[in-house]
Each structure stands twice: as structure tokens, then as C-alpha cells.
Automatic annotation (TrEMBL), chains A, B:
CDD domains, sorted: SpoU-like_rRNA-MTase
Native species: Aureimonas ureilytica
Keyword vocabulary terms for this entry: Methyltransferase, Transferase
Presence of keyword Transferase: yes
Gene Ontology BP terms: methylation; RNA processing
S-adenosyl-L-methionine listed as a keyword: no
Start and end residues of each tRNA/rRNA methyltransferase SpoU type domain: 125-264
Name of the protein described by the UniProt record: RNA methyltransferase
One Pfam assignment: SpoU_methylase
GO MF annotation terms: RNA binding; RNA methyltransferase activity
């Protein structure tokens, strides 16, 4: 069990990582801020991130003890009353559980090639998010990806940060367990994944083939574009595209919802012969 | 083209319906508040609701004129500058377009029986939302339902209000075009829909049959439960249940996302022989 340290003074320098953790205040700071007990579990089992410290509301402590035992002795657990807690965080934190997290280690290109090759051999899936700008959508994309066994997420240089506090929350912690990395340029990402043997697919209202008619099961990379504009039309025309059958004349679906529908199709047919 | 009336004084009694329209302030008031130009279009084509009045930011007026022409001369269009507009609404309305809407007419049981019988004959779908409590989810459910041709939504007595401002916005106005009604009791709703010839199905992680194996196309009613608990287990055990194939050990999907996956399956197979 990690050490428990009582905090009575909101200006105590030891709780510096927890000071003013509204999303807008976290920009540019090292590490990330995870909230809530379910996300705490995801952080405990993450191989890519580790907790640096926890801040727990005093009246939540007893109920959380079994969970807290999964953190090592090098993770201080700060405990505070509601008033001190909210004064530290800069807003009322209803869940009463905050974890300051950091990356566990730097990953190399070789690590990523090995990871993706393993996913490919296993006929698994990866998602490529290009220019996704909404943190809710990013979180929902990871949550949906987790439900359908997505092995990794690749982000282009324009996509927003999955470690934004709100994305972590909406993902129910899945951003801490699905490996992700950032790479520059959709064409470079495509060349890399295609070279590793992934079938690269994207979603488009004018797609070549209806999703539900996509039969043969293969290792797949699903490319998603920005919320408004979608993927670059020049890139779209060079990649096999799927359309989701939809009633005529309507606004398209939310990007994370579209991804869920496509990933469900891939996942539910994963045991069919290729 | 409806009349355009300039408002210079935020206390002007004519703009009463637009005063203090944050969701919490709208509770218990007649009518509803729709925002944004896309939702305005949905209101214009709605058969079940009509605009009572519009409030438009002056610098949006010219761009909106083609849209505004679709409202009748009995719909006053109030125009105000940003400062006056925000003082009326009680918060900064970035979209600069508000519509005060009301129900066009009361619908009878006979109207609803006729509507549902038509949907059933057409082998269409309805959604039944029991206890859904989150307004984002309610809005997303209508948006997703619209994409997949849902003909009507039935709400039980516990489900939240689709006409809540945030639900309307998240639905991209679909709550104004998909007919919905409230009824008491999931069993009464089930008896009614089954009696009209709908195949009643629900979603459950322990469902009898995997969604993607559901073949034969029929008129269907999809029952959805609350975000946390789902449907009443006693009811669940009496209805045919579908499970969405999912990676093991995970939190279930968001209810509106689950619905989208199921409805996509129904919709994409609607032309298969029954």
C-alpha cells in the first residue's frame, strides 16, 4: 500500500501537480490528469503510463482502499477534505479522485513496428485519426475502439490530445490502455501501415463499398478524418472507402459513432475465414 | 417572408420567450428553444412543431434570409445586436439563431396507431427509450435514429425530455422531425407495439443472439434502458435480446452508440427478403 499523506493547506507544494487542473489550465504542462475510480483502474493496469501521485477526497478513501493497493510505494496518496480538495483543483471535483499520470517510458519506432506487426499477424485493427479536433469525440473513439478490440491508434499532427482531461474521462480510461502515437502526414501513415500488411480503409458517404457488404476478414486500419470536412479528398480517392448505409438527405453521423459501427462490423466477423 | 422587428431594449416584452434560455431556466416553461441554422431548417420542415418566433443576431440576418423565407407571416423575426441578444438569452449565444417552438397540434391515440401501423407495414423501425436520463444521449439517439430511418420514438415516463435545449442541439434537430410520444410502463408499450406487429427486441450484454447474426428483416421495435442499469431484468427476460459482440472485460458502449450499431444492422438489411 502506498503512503497516505494528509493535506490541510491548499498551497502545500507537494500537491503542485493537482493545482488548477481545469483543462485550459493543464495546457503545456507535463503529464496528465485522470479522474474517477474506474479510470484509476485503467491507469493501474496501463503499461504505457504510470501514476505519479493521487489526490483523494477523505470520505472516498475507505471505499477506494482495495484499488489503491494496486499502486506501488513510490506513488504518494494525498488526502484532503472537500474544501481543500476543490481549492487545490480550482473547481469542484465531484468524483473526489484525481491521479497525476506520466508516460512510463519512451517508445521507439522499433517498439511500434513490433507492436503493429503483432496486431497484423493477429488480424486485428488499428484506427488512424486525422485532424480529429473535438476532445469528446477523441475520448469516445478510444472507448468504442476498446469495445471492439482496437490494438492501437495512430494520430496525425493535427489531431487533438487524447490525454486531455475530458478525453480521458469520456474514454473511460481507454486512452491509457490502447497504445497510441502521433505521426506526421496521412500518406506517411498509410504507407507505413500498408507496408506492414494492413488493409487501409476509410469511411466516406460516397464510399466504394457498403460497410455491411465488406466480407473477408483481414488486419485493417480504419482512417478517420476531421469532424466537419472528413479526410482530404485527394487521399480519399486513393484509398478503398466504405460507406455506411444511411437514410437519404441526412447529416452524417458523429465520427466516433461511425467508427463504432465500422469496428463492430470488423470485430463481429473476425472469426470468418479470410 | 415573415416580418422583421428590431429589438433595442433587452426588457422588451415581445421577446419574452427568449429571456433566460439556459436549460435550467427553461424547466417548466411552455414550448422549447432551438438553436442554430441547421436546426431551424428542421423546425421549418417539422410537421409536429412550429416556430412561434425567431430571434436572430443582426449580422447573421443576411446569410439566413433564404432560410427565413420558409416561415410564415405569423412568425415574427426579432433582430438584435450581440449585446442585446446575449442580455436577453442570459448567456452568450454563439450561433446567433434562436427559435421558440411549440407543438403544432395535439395527437390522439388514433393518430399514433395509424402512424405506427404505417411504419409496421413498411417494415420500418421504432425505438423505445426507457429511463434514459442523459440529454446528450437522448439527442444522440434521435440523431442516430434519423440516420437509419427510425419512424418514431416512444419514451417511458422516466425518460428525459427530447425537447431540452441541449437534446435538440445534439440531435441536430432530429427531435423535431422524428415523431415521439410518452407512455407509461415498458410492459404497456411492449404490448402495444407487439400487438401492432412489431418484433420487440432489446440490447443486453447477455443477449440471446448476436446482433450480427440477426438475419430476417421485419418491422422492429428496439427497447433501450437507462445508461447505468439498462432495462428491468424481469422485462429483459421476457423479450428477445440482442448482444453486440464485444471484446471481453469491458465497460459497455454508450447507449446511443449501441443503438446506432443495432439500427445500422436493421437498416442495412432492410431490402433482404423476410
Amino acid at each position: 500500500m502506498p503512503p497516505i499523506i494528509e493535506i490541510f493547506d491548499p498551497t502545500d507544494p507537494r500537491i503542485e501537480p493537482f493545482r488548477d487542473v481545469r483543462d485550459r489550465d493543464l495546457r503545456g504542462r507535463d503529464g496528465f490528469m485522470a479522474e474517477g475510480s474506474v479510470v484509476l483502474d485503467q491507469l493501474a493496469r496501463s503499461e504505457r503510463f504510470r501514476a505519479g501521485a493521487l489526490l483523494i477526497l477523505r470520505n472516498r478513501l475507505a471505499g477506494l482502499e482495495p484499488r489503491l493497493a494496486s499502486f506501488g510505494p513510490d506513488v504518494p496518496i494525498y488526502v484532503a477534505d472537500s474544501e481543500v480538495f476543490d481549492a487545490i483543483a480550482g473547481f469542484p471535483v465531484h468524483r473526489g479522485v484525481l491521479a497525476y499520470g506520466v508516460a512510463a517510458e519512451l517508445e521507439t519506432d522499433a517498439d511500434w513496428n513490433a507492436r503493429l506487426s503483432a496486431i497484423q499477424r493477429d488480424r486485428g485493427f488499428v484506427v488512424v485519426a486525422c485532424g480529429l479536433s473535438n476532445h469528446d469525440n477523441m475520448g469516445a473513439l478510444f472507448r468504442n475502439g476498446d469495445a471492439f478490440g482496437v490494438g492501437a491508434v495512430i494520430l496525425d499532427q493535427m489531431a487533438c490530445d487524447p490525454l486531455y482531461r475530458k478525453s480521458i474521462r469520456v474514454s473511460v480510461g481507454s486512452v491509457l490502455t490502447i497504445p497510441f502515437r502521433r505521426m506526421e502526414g496521412v500518406r506517411a501513415i498509410h504507407a507505413w501501415l500498408a507496408g506492414l500488411g494492413f488493409e487501409c480503409l476509410c469511411l466516406s458517404p460516397a464510399g466504394d463499398i457498403a460497410l455491411h457488404e465488406l466480407g473477408t476478414h483481414r488486419a485493417r486500419a480504419l482512417f478517420l478524418g476531421t469532424e466537419g470536412e472528413g479526410l482530404d479528398p485527394a487521399f480519399l480517392s486513393d484509398v478503398r472507402s466504405l460507406r455506411i448505409a444511411m437514410a437519404p438527405g441526412l447529416d452524417s453521423l458523429n465520427v466516433a459513432t461511425s467508427a463504432a459501427i465500422a469496428l463492430h462490423h470488423f470485430f463481429s466477423r473476425r472469426f470468418e475465414p479470410s
